[in-house]
Amino acid sequence: MGVLDKLEMSLVDPLEKKAPALPPNARRGLAKAMWIIALVLGVLQLWAAWSFWHLGHYIDASVTYLNTISSYYGTPNVAVSHLGLFYYLSLLFLVVDAVVLLLATTGLKAMRKAGWNFLFYSLILNVAYGLIRMFAEVGGGFGQFFWTLVSTAIGAYFLFQIRSEFGGKAPVSAAHKTDAAPAPKK
After folding, report:
1. Distance CA 117, CA 99 (A)
2. CA–CA separation, 138 vs 160, rounded Å?
3. What are phi and psi of 157, to 5 degrees?
């Protein structure tokens, strides 16, 4: 059993069995609409990554401009920090998370556990993204991480509430084996 399997199984009890359950019709409806939600969120995250890229470069250009003016007038630089490692790592995680969400849509539309697994991976990537953003020079900080944790907890609740609609009895790796496409007929 891998790390993701252990994590999934450890979250089943508090988020699926002990948490207040959604009504069966709500679960079914949410599960059927989840592919659209994943598609919209994936596209929005790609747009957010594009905006984050432009914001970072706008701020970097502004700091460079202000430093040029400061040096012209003989005053100390406004700031020397440029876009750093955490900025680019958070941008990378945001794009990868968007791609994982977009990859989930076909499995979710077919109501397969593999689609649900991609949403689970996205949830984990979201926490990693929040942790990295906490150290980014552009728009980071503890407040960003706190809201990432809150949104991830809410997302995890809904994700585990609909898990059974996708054949969610098996852990992540076992579901990949059972979700394999059947062999083509001759």
Report:
1. 14
2. 33
3. -60, -50
Spatial CB neighbours of 34, under 8 Å, sequence gap ≥ 6:
108, 115, 119, 162
Domain residue ranges of the chain, discontinuous segments joined by +: 3-175
Angle between helices 113-133 and 85-109 (to 10 degrees): 160
The token duo for 165 is 């609609």
pTM of the model: 0.79
What tens digit of pLDDT does each residue of 21-31 get? 899 999 999 99
Buried b (16+ CB within 10 A) or exposed e, 12-34: beebbeeeeeeeeeebeebbeeb
- Residue pair 163/13 in contact by the 8 Å Cβ criterion: no
